[in-house]
Write a structure and sequence with these properties.
10 helices; 11 strands; 2 domains; two-stranded antiparallel sheet; 250 residues
Length: 250
Amino acid sequence: MSEHKNVYPVRDSIAAKAWADKDKYAAMYQQSMDDPEGFWGEQAKRLDWIKTPSKIKNTSFARDNVDIRWFEDGELNVAANCLDRHLEKRGDQTAIIWEGDNPNESKHISYRELYERTNQLANGLKSLGVQKGDTVTLYMPMIPEAAMAMLACARIGAVHSVVFGGFSPDAVAQRVIGADSKLVITADESVRGGKHVPLKENVDSALKRDGTDVCKNVLVVKRTGGEIDWQEGRDIWFDELVDKQSSECP
């Protein structure tokens, strides 16, 4: 049986702008194999560190003691590396291009806009008692607020747990309980292939399960404006919380 392959060569104009050509990639790969500590130590300089690591690689592959650690005494903030360090030169450039289920619905969000909104959300989470080490469950559509939520958690040292938006209430409940999640961020509904998926309704159902009382608040993004049930004292509109927060979160 003959094998058919479609090969689409890269245009010269695009290849000329590539960060690494084939030869450079091969050389870098070989260096990473020959001297992993030196190679990754050099790559680490491309990040902004709160505390620069003095230990690059600390590994054991012994059968009875497999232990792999990288940069173990270093300290950084992922959100700062994704956002803050780009503001000076790229602040007004696009960080996220979002397209909704309907291609006519789209947004371009700059680094500065993303930075400010992420900080506002981070401050909002702190106002609800979320602290370093706490878990926040994200049961969200593919919307910009999902990226903001991940970055906001990283900003304050919280752990985000992403739950696929197609999962059932039981699956959501299991993950809330398993992660000891303090807060859930969701949306009224998501839209997939023209169909509305009742995310908030699923969260409501999930949080009726035994053991989910660890979750104290549900933060709701108004995605479609669909009708939802509301539990006073627990449920909070995303924009109402975030809009009133400072756009600085050191």
